[in-house]
Amino acid sequence: MKKILSVVLAFAMLLSLASIAMADYSGDIKIWIAENVVDFTKQQVEAFKAANPEYANMNVIVEPVGEGDAASNIITDVEAGADIFGFAQDQLARLVAAGALLDVEPSNAEKVTAENDAGSVAAVTLGDTMYAYPMTSDNGYFLYYDKSVLSDPSSMEQILADCEAAGKNFYMEINSGWYQTAFFFGAGAELTFESNDEGQLVKMNSGYASDNGVKALKSIIKVAASPAFVNGSSVSNANNICAIVDGTWDATAAKEALGDNYAATKLPTVDGYQMSGFGGFKMLGVKPQTDDDKLAACDALAAYLTSEEVQLARYNAVGWGPSNLNAQQNEAVQADEALSALAAQLAFCEPQGQYPGEYWSLATALGDDVIADKLDNADDAALLETLKNFEATCEGYLAK
């Protein structure tokens, strides 16, 4: 019996050693990442290799390819594309449809879900499957404002009243399909698209042509009618600012424009509902591999590059806002007013999915009609008809 037990134990040890040997990988791995984090990523790769001896000899090539270009390039030729690549959440469906993403290993998926904010987790998930690792939770819009002027930045009605009384401007880009959703989604009017296995948009889910949609459109018209309203979303192109709906990319400009009165917070309520909108996230994906050892290395590296430690280091290096819950609680991140405002707003937002290119032009036309006062005298029935036409046109963009 002892002999049998010894043989079994010896065999088990051999299997264990074999699996450890199989985990070693010394080949090439290519990463595509935004240009401003190439050097940072190279440094983190070296830290990963130092901490994981089994990968010490692998050759990691880091190339500057932006989030938008990465998705388009890899879909064109999956085999020639990077093994690990950064992309934005609106590219997820088409990448999955193209077979360019491997689903996240279950134990890693559990860890991702537990450690990252709900918006970023939703952004990397399609159906019930997680396809990427959240890297940031920092793309969206919120309110910058002059705290010496606004008495209550949580109310659109009070914001407009205070801006008007002070003779100052309130900026929001209402002829943008990105910013418009703050009203429609907030009022409960959905607009999403679904794609087939080829990445074509084949179904639309919309509640624009509804009482909620009419409510949202009436809010847009009301805001645009204020003497304080100016259509725009760039601090650098604004003047006499009381408040502006903008993003983290303009934080420095906002601080310069508002000086000691600089403040930031989530979007306000309007007509009784909390304004919503799109949330934006960056993530890392791993493409399918034929070599199991290389796949294990890619998974381990992608998980490391999106970990709490690296997300926080990335924030300190280039200012990218973390999706990791612990990193978000870091003192420096918490002290970042713009990121804190965005984090508060993202709790009310939807991850931006894939939209037909024509949608953006259609939304611009709707906003332009509001700005030109073409809808000022329209009753609810006329506004509903406008939104029915909007929906019908959107549906016409679907693949036949």
Please explain how this structure is put together.
With 400 residues, the protein is an alpha/beta fold. The chain has 2 domains: 24-138 and 280-346, Periplasmic binding protein-like II (D-Maltodextrin-Binding Protein, domain 2), CATH 3.40.190.10; 142-276 and 356-395, 3-Layer(aba) Sandwich (D-Maltodextrin-Binding Protein, domain 2), CATH 3.40.190. 47% of the residues lie in helices and 17% in strands. The protein is built from 17 helices and 18 strands. The strands form 6 sheets. It has a 5-stranded mixed β-sheet. The protein has a 5-stranded mixed β-sheet with strand order 11-8-12-7-13. Strands 4-5 form a two-stranded antiparallel ribbon. Helix 2 links the parallel strand 1 and strand 2 (59-64). The termini are far apart.
CATH topology of the largest domain: D-Maltodextrin-Binding Protein, domain 2
What is the tally of helical segments? 17
What radius of gyration results from the CA coordinates?
A: 24 Å
Straight-line N-to-C gap: 70 Å
- Secondary structure: number of strands: 18
User: What's the CATH H-level superfamily name of the largest domain?
Assistant: Periplasmic binding protein-like II
What's the structural domain tally?
A: 2
Low-confidence stretches: 1-22
Strand order of the largest sheet: 2-1-3-17-6
Helix percentage range: 40-55%
Average pLDDT value?
92
Main beta sheet strand tally, sense and closure: 5 strands, mixed
Which CATH architecture of the largest domain is right? 3-Layer(aba) Sandwich
